[in-house]
Amino acid sequence: MKVALFVPCYIDQFYPNVGIATLQLLEKLGCEVAFPLEQTCCGQPMANSGFADLSNGCDANFVKNFSGFDYIVAPSGSCVLHIKEHLYDFDNEQEALNIRNSIYELTEFLTDILKVKNISASFPYKVGLHNSCHGQRGLDLSSMTERMLPQFSKPEQLLQLVDGIELRKPKRNDECCGFGGTFCVFEEAVSVKMGKDRTKEHEDNDVDYITGGDTSCLMHLEGILKRQKSKVKTIHIAEILNSVL
What we know:
Elements: E1 2-5, H1 9-14, H2 16-28, E2 32-34, H3 44-48, H4 56-66, E3 71-74, H5 77-86, H6 93-102, E4 103-105, H7 106-113, E5 126-129, H8 133-138, H9 154-159, E6 166-167, H10 183-186, H11 188-204, E7 209-212, H12 215-227, E8 233-236, H13 237-241
Helix pairs in contact: 11-12
């Protein structure tokens, strides 16, 4: 199984350990992983700001770098959803379609493709899980309270396999953290208030860490926690699943 690792901008620039943990985890689970060295931004920031036409170069570069793999995996629900819904290359339409159909968010790949039932990981801490909007409502990584369907959560399913972990859910389990990409820039006050509401529910649960599948959301929550001098830390789910504490 040839798997290409797509590392989004936030991870590459600010949280490289998330990319390293993802690589190590996939290799532990038997995947042959390649990292295309000329990969760059997927184009989501431009598209979200209303300038999708400026991301054509990103699309063409993405197709160039990620063609020919069985699967493409990324530790980011928002970037994966963007590729699934918006990747297009006028010169390579079929390759772009193949990529849209073969890219997966990390926890989605582990549960749906690898069908992981056991993970050799240990993380003896109290952990709150944050469900990012793109992953939950765009990729169906977990159930939504507004839909009367059986409850499920692919990230939670994997975290339950980790030795020593104690998961604690906030009351409003699927509420947005307020990051929203450029939303946090143009609607700063609203974004911060939403983030404070999220962190408070996790702090009320006396957790040691908040985890999730989107580094951008975790970065937003981390900034609020640090400014409030909270003891709670953030950690990407890949780092927990790869942990051997």
